UniProtKB/TrEMBL annotation:
Keyword Transferase annotated: no
Keyword terms: 2Fe-2S, Iron, Iron-sulfur, Metal-binding, Nitrate assimilation, Oxidoreductase
Biological process per Gene Ontology, one example term: nitrate assimilation
Protein name listed in UniProt: Nitrite reductase (NADH) small subunit
Iron as UniProt keyword: yes
A Pfam family the protein falls into: Rieske_2
Matches recorded under SUPFAM superfamilies: ISP domain
Domain Rieske: 10-106
Lineage, broadest ranks: Bacteria, Bacillati, Bacillota, Bacilli, Bacillales
Recorded superkingdom: Bacteria
Length: 108
């Protein structure tokens, strides 16, 4: 039996490995995350599953400011909260991120 550490931070790569406004898939502890670096350098980690009823990946979305436009349904998602913006509704699970010495760490 394996146990997962709750809230433990795991290395996800260096800051330079995350290109601005382009998503990247990172797998940590059996979780598939979509990681984004905004044009101001902030890094966000989200569940890589679209909350739309038909689902789909989020890592292929387009980042503008602190919003992600999902690639299949053009839903606008706030990267700071994971909240899908009106007129659509939904919530994307977001993960805590910290950067130390150019290393990106994500808590799952």
């Amino acid at each position: 039996m394996t146990t997962k550490q709750t809230g433990a931070y795991y290395p996800a790569g260096t800051v330079d490995e995350f290109l601005p406004r382009i998503g990247r898939v990172v797998e940590i502890e059996d979780e598939q995350l979509a990681v984004f670096r905004t044009s101001d350098g902030t890094i966000y980690a989200a569940d890589n599953h679209n909350p739309h009823p038909k689902g789909g990946p989020l890592a292929e979305g387009i980042v503008s400011g602190h919003y992600l436009y999902d690639p299949l349904y053009d839903w606008k998602i706030d990267l700071t909260t994971g909240q899908v913006q009106a007129p659509d509704t939904g919530q994307v699970k977001m993960y805590p991120v910290k950067v130390e010495n150019e290393q990106v760490w994500i808590a799952v």
